[in-house]
Specification:
The structure is a homodimer.
Chain A (H helix, E strand, L loop, with lengths): L18 H15 L6 H7 L4 H4 L6 H15 L9 H17 L11 H7 L1 H13 L4 H30 L7 H7 L5 H14 L3 H24 L1
Helix pairs in contact in A: 4-6, 5-7, 5-8, 5-11, 7-8, 8-11
Chain A binds a DNA duplex through helix 3.
Chain lengths: 228, 228
Amino acid sequence: MRTPASRRGKGSNPSALSQQVITDAAQRILDEEGHESLSMRRLARSLSITPMALYHHVRDKDELLILLLAKKAQSYPRPELPEEPRERLVAASQLLYDLLSEAAFLSEILTSPDLLAVAVSWITDSITEAAAACGLRPEDATKAQQLIWRYTAGELLALQSRRRLKQGTSKRPSSAIAEASAEKHPRITSMSARWPDLIAQNTHRRGLENIVDGILAAHRRDAHLPSG
Amino acid sequence: MRTPASRRGKGSNPSALSQQVITDAAQRILDEEGHESLSMRRLARSLSITPMALYHHVRDKDELLILLLAKKAQSYPRPELPEEPRERLVAASQLLYDLLSEAAFLSEILTSPDLLAVAVSWITDSITEAAAACGLRPEDATKAQQLIWRYTAGELLALQSRRRLKQGTSKRPSSAIAEASAEKHPRITSMSARWPDLIAQNTHRRGLENIVDGILAAHRRDAHLPSG
DNA sequence: ACCTGAACACCGTTCAAGT
DNA sequence: ACCTGAACACCGTTCAAGT
């Protein structure tokens, strides 16, 4: 009983399934149909194979996504970073944000920050290095990197919801929520009116600089106090 | 509010279904089985009703989750905040983090920050107010609140993954990822060895203070430059 | 070793109908 | 108005078997 699976076209060898082929196909789905469409089953269909065939090359969906991110990180342009340490710290952090904003599927794996961080480590390493060059001890430099990483994660979530808002996939506040929460605070009413404009803005860069300066100021304080 | 705390006989009267009854049952599932177990179907089963009966009282699952959060926010203890503006800003921000860390299902709705923010607006309002009391103009105070909110979101993601790590639901880095990413950076190897200790720490408070001070310093700079 | 077929154990949500 | 039954259109993943 021979399965008449339609030829995979394009490829010369139908049995040429590999991690490379899989991630390429996944990226194509991401680009053409959006990250909501990327499922193991959909991916298998696009390769004319059984979903289970995928599991011979990737452990699970999370691994696939991280792999996708790692590939993007690898091929990402690596600009020369500024000489001046503080500028370098800001630039490397900005780079992290820019790269990750291109990975729309990110929210699904954002809860695995450690795995994620490994995938983009050439950038997070630069951040740590730059922090160290600003005078922070290795330990504090790593903490600084972590702080920036977490802020970046929060900004990326916000970016994602802004995008969905544009797409029109978002939801209206729904009276139930307003009712359940708008009881004891009069202020919100006036503030929420301005909200749409405010959340529409990309405030990442400004925030980043505030944070970097906050870190460096704290360092200078700590460095001066013990000796004086 | 016309809920006279009446009959909710466990299965005796199926017509006693209401938003109150639904959210109570959902909270029970959350508490007893964890947020992964909370689904519309599971919830319906626990109430001995059809999944679709739920949709007469909540629009969809997201609304249910936000409702759950709004309830928690409402019943959360409201401590007296410090008089001193900077201290108040820090304290209110810490409060936001503390409250949200108790909502383990949060990551599912973290991508709707605007809806979320309405649910906990009594805290976010305090943050904005405190920032204004520090001298920021209303617009800048709102931006400060936004910055803090986003950092908090990032910290909460990190917290969540730390919890999963403890639970043992986490994944080992998997050679494929290491292979795909650890090619061009030698530094990562030495750093990732220290990682487990570092990510295990709760660095939120320290980071928060850095950020608050960064914001206030930027404000002082901006306020002084134009006049002098 | 690599892949298939079938199944397991689920999801959120829509629709038409019942009371 | 409130609820059910059945279906739609999916998920990720395991298992045993085939080549």
